[in-house]
Amino acid sequence: RPSPTRRPMATAEARRLHAGFVLSALALASACGGVDTGAPTTPERSAAPVTARVLLPLEHDTVFSYETQTDAGEVGLMILQIRRPRPDLAELDIAGRVQRLDVDATSVMHASGGYLLKDPIHAGATFQGAFGVVTVMETGQRVELPAGTFDDCVVTREESQRPFKRADSTYCPDVGLVSLVVE
Q: Other C-beta atoms within 10 Å of 60: how many?
């Protein structure tokens, strides 16, 4: 390979959406992750608490591929590239649409408002997201996907009632987003 750029593969699911909306829903989730093609398991970690920065590494020039699927069974592919023009900013490029994230020591926040992840991360923690309240539903989860098996993962749910919208996201340490289900 001519470039050392990491090109991991992870699975993202989208349900109850039109195919055209799947990409914008994934863009809302914004931070994505995967694993190197040669090692489909989560890297070894210490027993330290999981933080937003560990769950969303957002490394410069990383490219991710996600398989998408609608309830109607339409399958697609989303390619996402991460750029870090400066340490406190991440840009996620999905087919020319760029989403900006403000990154600090304890959170990842949409530049347009609302957190993607915010410390401390523990079951029951809540914070304001891009479209509703985000609740940390589970921590310490093992997730098995076609891209690999991941440990110590965190599941969040962002939800609004009017209009109804729900996004369940699974983030894994040193990997990023491995699953997204949007209703």
A: 13
Residue 121 token pair: 């991360």
CA distances for 68 relative to 30, 36, 108, 177, angstroms: 14, 19, 24, 13
Q: What is the pLDDT of residues 48-104, one digit of tens each?
A: 679 999 999 999 999 988 899 998 999 999 999 999 999 999 999 999 999 999 999
Q: What is the number of residues in the chain?
A: 183
Strands 63-69 and 9-11: parallel
What is the SS3 assignment for 74? coil
Residue 124: left if φ>0, alpha if ψ -120 to 50, beta else—which one?
left
